[in-house]
Design brief:
Blueprint (H helix, E strand, L loop, with lengths): L1 H9 L18 H10 L24 E5 L2 E4 L4 E4 L14 H11 L10 H12 L6 E5 L2 H16 L3 E5 L12 E2 L6 E2 L1 E2 L6 H4 L2 E4 L4 H10 L4 E7 L12 H13 L3 E5 L11 H6 L5 E5 L9 E5 L1 H4 L18 H14 L4 H22 L5 E5 L2 E5 L16 H13 L2 E2 L8 E2 L6 H20 L1
Parallel strand pairs: 3-16, 5-9, 5-10, 10-11, 11-12
Antiparallel strand pairs: 1-2, 2-3, 4-13, 6-8, 7-9, 12-13, 14-15, 15-17
């Protein structure tokens, strides 16, 4: 068996016999008890919708602790974690250097609502390694960063309309909680109750990878579009890697129409590298939003641009934005510790190489079995899709395939592997995932795929 495992891990497409029997479901007794109690306190029993496990089998797992690449739930089940708190834990859980720095800073207090030297230190660390922006402002979340960037774009250009893409998620900002209607170019239709139609009417929604639709939007709303916003690599609704030619087209058409190009790099910023997807495409946006990874597990976001554009922000300019917890010292401390590690020579090369080998091994196995299954990957991000097509648009994702993901998710949990509880969500490899951890995870994924495709 060891020899056959080595063949799969080393790249051989030779088939390997694996189990096709489901394992017994893990115990969730304590998690179920906690969930039932939580439903008395929170809508749906959770403080963020996807945590409710509505897209997969069973009730949510209540997590008690994390260390390295592992999680433990309230029932004592241990998992290799590929959710990584939805991306920010690029060094893994409970990283000693982050913990040490945070503990040190907390001795002096946890919030002041006033400037601290820690803000300067983290900003200098970011700007030293990021040629895309000249000034930035810290906020407390990715959603807040995007909301602020949109306001900045409107204030700077003195225009109102925003163009976004179907399948790109930019946080729960009213103007961006919209989806495409029918037609090539549409005003957004609200995708959440409580969002006024008048807000959605300022948002134009088109399909990804559709030049004609973007061109039509600029023709139809000439001199009205403040900005085009796109995820650096769309990674909230599958992993929809765009061709450089399309992203360059967005850069050119916005520049030609005196609109701004906003890269939402809340997921990809500092995950693909210090300069994120912008560096990957070698394209410079006008405004960039960041989040997640900056905080090393603490709530942090940021947005940045040229000194000229950022000069529109209060107190220098007329665009108001504020936050009591912006630049919180504990969050700044976590960010300093994390980004210091990320700035070390070879960090991203080593991490991305490890993640690439992991993804390629899984793809080889699926291909050797002729399974309709594709691993999309970039940097240390991956996405499992039950398809044999190269998906670039949200509309091309087969909703029916999510039934297969449900089975896979349950089988992986039963084998000690934790993925985000939705087939539309991406996974992450961290620096804490060892070769042994990844090989154990591969084995579990191979077995789970065999079960999915046997049914």
């Amino acid at each position: 068996m060891l020899d056959s495992l080595k063949k799969i891990f080393s790249g051989s497409e030779e088939e390997m016999p694996l189990t096709t029997s489901s394992k017994p479901d893990i115990s969730r007794e304590k998690s179920v008890e906690l969930y039932e109690k939580a439903k008395n306190y929170f809508p749906g029993g959770v403080n963020s919708p996807v945590r409710a496990f509505r897209s997969v089998y069973g009730t949510p797992l209540f997590i008690e602790k994390g260390d390295g690449c592992h999680l433990w739930d309230a029932d004592g089940n241990q998992f290799i974690d590929f959710c990584c708190s939805w991306g920010p834990l690029i060094l893994g859980h409970n990283n000693p250097k982050i913990k040490e720095k945070v503990t040190e800073v907390m001795q002096n207090g946890m919030s002041f609502g006033a400037p601290t030297a820690l803000e300067n230190e983290l900003a200098e660390l970011i700007l030293k390694h990021n040629s895309l922006i000249e000034k930035l402002r810290f906020v407390s979340s990715g959603t807040e960063a995007v909301m602020s960037a949109i306001r900045l774009a409107r204030g700077y250009t003195k225009r109102d309309k925003i163009l976004k893409f179907e399948g790109c998620y930019h946080g729960h900002v009213d103007a961006l909680l919209v989806k495409a209607g029918s037609g090539l170019v549409t005003f957004g239709e609200t995708s959440s109750a409580g969002v006024p139609k008048s807000f959605a009417d300022e948002t134009i929604v088109v399909s990804l990878n559709d030049r004609a639709a973007v061109e039509q939007a600029f023709d139809q709303f000439k001199d009205q579009i403040a900005a085009v916003i796109i995820e650096g690599i769309p990674a909230n609704n599958g992993l929809l890697i765009q061709d450089k030619e399309f992203v360059q087209f967005l850069r050119d058409i916005t520049a030609n129409n005196k609109s701004l190009l906003i890269f939402d790099e809340v997921i990809t910023g500092f995950r693909l590298g210090f300069e994120g997807a912008a560096k990957y495409y070698d394209i410079k946006p006008d405004i960039v939003t960041y989040g997640k990874i900056i905080g090393g597990g603490m709530p942090v976001g940021a947005y940045g641009a040229s000194a000229e554009i950022m000069g529109s922000i209060s107190p220098e300019g007329p665009v108001y934005q504020a936050g009591t917890l912006s630049g919180n010292p504990v969050a700044m401390a976590a960010g300093i510790a994390q980004l210091t590690e990320l700035s070390r020579s070879g960090f991203y090369k080593d991490l991305n190489s490890k993640a690439q080998e992991f993804a390629e091994s899984i793809q080889r196995f699926a291909t050797s079995r002729s399974y309709k299954f594709k691993v999309f990957t970039i940097g240390s991000i991956f996405w499992f899709a039950f398809t044999d097509q190269n998906i670039k648009k949200a509309e091309d994702i087969d909703a029916a395939s999510m039934e297969k993901f449900k089975i896979m998710h349950r089988e992986l949990l039963n084998r000690g592997i934790y993925l985000g509880p939705s087939g539309y969500e991406v996974g992450f490899v961290s620096a804490a995932h060892s070769k042994t951890d990844l090989e154990k995870a591969k084995r579990a994924i191979f077995e789970s795929l065999d079960i999915v495709f046997k049914k």
